[in-house]
Amino acid sequence: MRMTITVMMLLLNIFSLSAQTQEFSPPPSPRYNAFQQTGQEVDGFLERVRGKVSYSWFKCREHFRLMFTAVGDKSKYGEQDLKVRARLKTEEFSEQAVQFGQEVREKAVEFGRDTRKKGESFYQQKSDEVVDDIAEKTRRIQEELRNTGTGLYHDTSERFNNAADDAAEEILD
Q: 16 and which of 10, 50, 55, 141 could share a cystine (Cβ 3.0–4.6 Å)?
């Protein structure tokens, strides 16, 4: 909208300036007074248009000057606002970092406990398996020893009995 107004004011200014330029040949003098009166009315109208366009250009210049001044002021306030926001964000990130550190510490402690419990249960399970394996092997060895002992006893008893029988026969013969 402002662009349209600016273009319209520029065109009106050019039109009014071109209407005021004098031609190289002197204008013909009007025969009737009516032409002179109409020309004066048109000149007055164009003079008013030119004045309004000039006033509008002056106001536009003033408006742009105020607008750029306001932008400069906003940049000062914007810089302060950015500093405040940055400080708030920094504090927020610091709090989040501390909270994150606490969460990591808690999870590390919990992981250590879980690992220790798993290690203890694994150790207990493996030690139970080893104890069971040792007990089974010990039972088997004891059984084999008993079987071997029984076999030796029977074999020794039989040999002793045979030797005693042979000795008794020799004595009797």
A: 50
CA distance 33 to 154: 169
pTM of the full structure: 0.32
Structure tokens at 118: 């798993």
Sorted by sequence, the CB contacts under 8 Å of residue 47 that are 6+ apart come out as: 16
- At 101, list the tokens: 């550190």
Amino acid identity of residue 50, one-letter, is R
Beta strands in 64-138 (DSSP E): none
At 17-49, the pLDDT tens digits run 665 555 555 555 555 677 777 778 888 888 888
Angle between helix 2-20 and 33-172 (nearest 10): 150
